[in-house]
Amino acid sequence: MLKIGDRVPAGTLQEFIEVEGEGCSIGPNSFDIEKATAGKKIAVFALPGAFTPTCSAQHVPGYVQNYDALRAAGVDEIWCISVNDAFVMGAWGRDQKTGGKVRMMADGSADFAKATGLTLDLTAKGLGLRSQRYSMLLVDGVVKTLNVEGPGKFEVSDAATMLAQAKAA
Questions:
Q1: Is 55 part of the annotated catalytic residue set?
Q2: Is 79 exposed, middle or buried (0-12, 13-18, 19+ CB in 10 A)?
Q3: Annotated domain spans of the chain
Q4: CB atoms within 10 A of CB 22
Q5: Is residue 64 a contact partner of residue 78, using CB atoms and an 8 Å limit?
Q6: 72-112: per-residue pLDDT in tens?
Q7: What is the value of pTM for the model shown?
Q8: CA–CA separation, 146 vs 137, rounded Å?
Q9: Which of 13, 43, 139, 150 is the most exposed place for a label (fewest CB within 10 A)?
Q10: Catalytic residue among 8, 36, 47, 55
Q11: Structurally, what CATH architecture does the domain formed by 12-168 represent?
């Protein structure tokens, strides 16, 4: 399992881009994790699925609401990662009004979740392999904080906890 001090796993994540520009076309675009994290402080939060109750009512809105405070604490970007495809993550981002604040990063085949060792098997509920709920602060691709939730919990991966950690980092 990923731990503090580890380099974030190599690989790619996808993001649905709404407006063509800066080398990105409209629609799903792939991003190399190593390149995208280089030289940046990134607040990452991962969750089991788009449009799910806790994720939509609390997790994503907390990061959207704390965007300015996180930026003031030195965070360059905020990423939401979920085992969903880029189309679903794009639609969820529109629904949650994350534009320009939270990058909705798709881990469609759970490759990133598997590489971190932070998977959650929800096959019995018809959802397949997903990501556990967690947050982490990356500085130049290295894990500085890691907050993994217990099963069914939402206590340590919230935006307020991340904000306190970003201020201290």
A1: yes
A2: buried
A3: 12-168
A4: 6
A5: no
A6: 999 999 999 999 999 999 999 999 999 999 999 999 999 99
A7: 0.95
A8: 7
A9: 150
A10: 55
A11: 3-Layer(aba) Sandwich (3.40)
